[in-house]
DNA sequence: TATTGTTATACTCTATAACTATA
DNA sequence: TATAGTTATAGAGTATAACAATA
C-alpha cells in the first residue's frame, strides 16, 4: 500500500508557518537575550509607546491574546518598572498603560536589537517579496 | 517628539509571522480537538508513517526541535500506544520508530481533520499565491 | 571525543474558569 | 446583563544542563 495521491507533509501550510515562526523566535531569543525581554513584551512596550493610555483589552485585541495572557505579560513589565497603570477616562473599569522613563529607554534599546533581528530576517527577500509576504500573511490573521 | 521615520510595529515581519502562526494554531486546536493530538504529535505520526525506522534525531532535525522536546512528544505518543520504538540497524545508540496499527488508524483520522483545517487555511489564497507563500516561508527556515 | 538517547528542570505562551467591580 | 480587570491553574512548547551508553 502506498500513499500516491494522498498528499505529503510538505504540502501542509500550517507546518511551514510553524517552522518559520520557530526559526524567527529562536533568532530573536539569541540576538535579543541581552534585553531580558520576550517578543511579546517588546510588542506591548512598542504598542503602549505608540498609543499611551492603551488599555489591557486594546492590547489583547491588537496582539490577539487572551486577557489573562495579556495580564501576565503586563505584570512582568510593571514589576520591572517599565510600565505603569492608571485609570483611563471616566470608565472606572478601564485601566490605561503608560511607559515609564525606564520603559522608554528600554524600548529605544530594544528597537536597535529588533532592527538588527529584522534585518537578518528580511535580508533574504527583495522589497517586492517582502510586500507580498506581508500581505499574504495578513490575510491569515486579519 | 514624534516617531517620524522610526518605523511602525506594522513593519515588523516577525510580528506578522507570529500572528499568523497563532491564528492557525487556534483553529487547529478547535477543529482538531476531538483527536486529542497536538500539531506536533500529528507531524511526528505523519513523519514516521512516511519513513518507518526514523530515529529521534531525524525527527528533531526535520521538525527543527531540540532532542529533549522531541522526547516529550514521542513519549506521549508511545504512552497512548500509537508508536513503538525499536533498535534500528547496527548502531545500538539509534532507536527507530514505527506506528502501531492504532497509530496508523489515528493518522488516517487525523489526515481527514487536518485536510479540513488546511482547506480553511488555504481557501483565502489562489493556487499561485499558495506556491508563492510556501516558497517565501521556506526561505526563512531552510 | 562525538553522538544518541534520557531525565530533570524551568520559563514562556496560551487558554479556561471563577471571581470582583463597574457600566 | 455585559464589560474590564484579576487570579489561579493547567497544558504545550521550548531550551539547558547533566548523565549513561555507544561509536
Care to describe what's here?
The structure is a homodimer of 142-residue chains. Chain A is mainly α. The first copy, chain A, has helices spanning 13-31, 39-50, 56-62, 67-79, 101-122, 127-141, and strands at residues 83-87, 95-99. Chain A has a single domain (12-141), classed as Winged helix-like DNA-binding domain superfamily/Winged helix DNA-binding domain (Arc Repressor Mutant, subunit A, Orthogonal Bundle). The first copy, chain A, is 62% helix and 7% strand. In chain A, helix 1 packs across helix 5 (101-122) and helix 2 (39-50) crosses helix 4. The longest helix of chain A has 22 residues, at 101-122. Chains A and B meet through helix 1, helix 2, helix 5 and helix 6 of A and helix 1, helix 2, helix 5 and helix 6 of B. Chain A binds a DNA duplex (23 and 23 nucleotides) through residues 22, 25-26, 29, 38, 40, 55-57, 65-69, 71-73, 91-95.
Structural key phrases:
two-stranded antiparallel sheet, Arc Repressor Mutant, subunit A, homodimer, 62% helix, 2 strands, 142 residues, DNA-binding, mainly alpha, globular, 6 helices
Topology, please?
The structure is a homodimer of 142-residue chains.
Chain A: H1 13-31, H2 39-50, H3 56-62, H4 67-79, E1 83-87, E2 95-99, H5 101-122, H6 127-141
Antiparallel strand pairs in A: 1-2
Helix pairs in contact in A: 1-5, 2-4, 2-5, 3-4
The first copy, chain A, binds a DNA duplex (23 and 23 nucleotides) through helix 1 and helix 4.
Amino acid at each position: 500500500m502506498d500513499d500516491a495521491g494522498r498528499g505529503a507533509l510538505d504540502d501542509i501550510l500550517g507546518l511551514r508557518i510553524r517552522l518559520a515562526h520557530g526559526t524567527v523566535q529562536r533568532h530573536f531569543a539569541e540576538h535579543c537575550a541581552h534585553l531580558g525581554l520576550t517578543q511579546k513584551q517588546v510588542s506591548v512596550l512598542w504598542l503602549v509607546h505608540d498609543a499611551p493610555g492603551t488599555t489591557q483589552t486594546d492590547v489583547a485585541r491588537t496582539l490577539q491574546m487572551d486577557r489573562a495572557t495579556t495580564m501576565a505579560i503586563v505584570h512582568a513589565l510593571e514589576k520591572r518598572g517599565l510600565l505603569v497603570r492608571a485609570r483611563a477616562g471616566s470608565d472606572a473599569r478601564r485601566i490605561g498603560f503608560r511607559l515609564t522613563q525606564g520603559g522608554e529607554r528600554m524600548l529605544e534599546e530594544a528597537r536597535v536589537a529588533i532592527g538588527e533581528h529584522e534585518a537578518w530576517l528580511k535580508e533574504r527577500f527583495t522589497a517586492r517579496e517582502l510586500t507580498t509576504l506581508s500581505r499574504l500573511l495578513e490575510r491569515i490573521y486579519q
